[in-house]
Amino acid sequence: MDGWVSWLFLGIIIAAIIALLVWSFLSNRKRRKNFEETVNAIKPGNKVKTIGGIIGEVVEVNEEEGTFVLRTGDANGNCSFMKFDKQAIYQTDAKPEPAPEAPAAEKASAPAEEEKPADPFDGEKKEETGSEEKDAEKK
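The structure corresponding to this sequence follows.
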């Protein structure tokens, strides 16, 4: 009996480790995909911070080489241009394009927008008037 419990405990530990590894792999893949979509959405005018800490505005993107040109400088008009690989991006304000809209069949099954939601304070008003009437009856 004692050996059976030990094997069961060992099996639960191994299953938990496998579940954590699978969850970690899937979340890393999702994060990587989101980052790649964001990097591919970069276009001239976007603000970018590189892994080296250089901050600037994208002025040119070369999709074939996987590079972009960054303009950096100060408020006095002194600026310089540097060419970076897209993989050097640390942060950006670029947003990936949203997914295409749902087909018309799915829109038809959605609830109508004209319906107004119930007023959450209706119940409180009814309770207040009911308690006032009860108080008046007691007097």
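Residues 1-40 form one domain.
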